[in-house]
Automatic annotation (TrEMBL):
Organism (species): Paraglaciecola agarilytica NO2
Pfam families linked to this entry: MR_MLE_C (PF13378), MR_MLE_N (PF02746)
Documented EC number(s): 5.1.1.-
Higher taxonomy: Bacteria, Pseudomonadati, Pseudomonadota, Gammaproteobacteria, Alteromonadales
Cofactor: record remark: Binds 1 Mg(2+) ion per subunit.
Protein name per Swiss-Prot or TrEMBL: Dipeptide epimerase
Gene: ycjG
PANTHER family attached to this UniProt entry: D-GALACTONATE DEHYDRATASE-RELATED, ENOLASE SUPERFAMILY MEMBER DDB_G0284701
Length: 343
């Protein structure tokens, strides 16, 4: 079987400036990959989207270069889909492998005339609650943004270590029936965490994501936080799970960290077996970037896949998200024999 790979850079403008503890941006810079198989009977094409992330020393250019080098290696490759998967899995984890792996799954669905959910023996996803995200701003601006969401069930709040409690008090007052996930993006100290834990619990905060830098996780040993803690930047693949035990209660699984759906699925299974709660997360991207990870929603306690709500224009056949309720993947987008590639 002959395979071809193409990588495309796309800039997706955001609805507004998106701020987290380590910076701000006005557009999502993504890489879209198409993976084509020339068979005796037809030409089949799978596709996927990844989001290069500077936190892991990735740029669009570096990810495209890695994908293009992989594409060049296929000139001497004459194998089947299973052998191609082995070749993809040999790449280092990250955005490049994510795009290739997820494009491979879309291609496999078309080759075998089965959905990816069926290929992985997953139940058909049900509608689920996804968090909707507030970026960092003043207490007043964040309260106004929370109110504008219309009191959704779950709000994710990006917070640095400035005015943690006053900001959450303002947000809680604006949306008192909502529950909250607070995401510090490694921006706090252990002192910050200890100082605000009880107050955050009283404000309907049900999870705190990555409060400390990834290299400071040892400070969480023997600390019993009033709010469960979730590892994000500290958890990429199954390799970190033993280290994270005793430090975190949950792990945030993101495709651009795991290097694709193959490892994400394995990570979810092993993390659950070890007693971790599962959170599904995303970088800021289109529905195409969310599609593969959404198939794992039935095993997750927390879902944070609102990336498409942050960009001005989503892809055709994207996710339907209303008042925090996320409908299952549209088979026309990705992961089925009928998915359509619309660049």
């Amino acid at each position: 079987m002959i395979f071809h790979v193409e990588a495309y850079q796309q800039a997706l403008p955001l609805k507004s400036v998106f701020r987290i503890a380590r910076g701000a941006k006005t557009q999502a810079d993504v890489v879209v990959v198409t993976l084509t198989a020339d068979t005796d009977n037809a030409q089949l094409v799978g596709w996927a989207e990844s989001v290069p992330y500077g936190r892991y020393n990735e740029t669009v250019e570096s990810v495209k270069q890695e994908i293009n080098q992989f594409a060049q290696s296929l000139s001497a490759f004459d194998g089947d889909l299973a052998q191609l998967s082995d070749k993809i899995q040999a790449l280092p984890g990250g955005s490049a492998r994510n795009a290739l792996d997820c494009a491979w799954w879309d291609l496999k669905a078309k080759s075998e005339q089965k959905s990816v959910a069926d290929l992985l023996s997953l139940s058909t996803p049900s509608p689920c609650i996804t968090a909707q995200t507030l970026s960092i701003d003043t207490p007043e601006a964040m309260a106004a943004a929370a109110k504008a969401l219309g009191h959704p069930p779950l709000i994710k709040v990006k917070l640095d270590n400035q005015d943690i409690v006053p900001k959450m008090q303002a947000i809680h007052q604006a949306s008192p029936e909502s529950q909250f996930i607070v995401d510090a993006n490694e921006g706090w100290s252990i002192h910050d965490l200890k100082a605000c834990g009880d107050s955050l619990k009283a404000l309907n905060v049900i999870l705190i994501e990555q409060p400390l830098p990834a290299d400071k996780d040892a400070e969480l040993i023997d600390y019993s936080c009033p709010v469960p803690l979730c590892a994000d930047e500290s958890c990429h693949t199954r390799k970190e799970l033993t280290y994270l035990k005793g430090r975190y209660d949950a792990v945030n699984i993101k495709l651009d960290k795991t290097g694709g759906l193959t490892e994400a699925h394995a990570l979810a299974q092993e993390a659950q077996a070890m007693g971790f709660e599962i959170m599904l997360g995303c970088m800021v991207g289109s529905s195409l970037a969310m599609a593969p990870i959404s198939l794992l929603s039935d095993c997750a306690k927390f879902v944070d896949l609102d990336g498409p709500l942050l960009i001005k224009t989503d892809r055709e056949n994207g996710f339907d998200i209303e008042q925090g309720l996320m409908q299952p993947l549209n088979n026309a987008l990705w992961g089925s024999p009928n998915s359509q590639i619309i660049l």
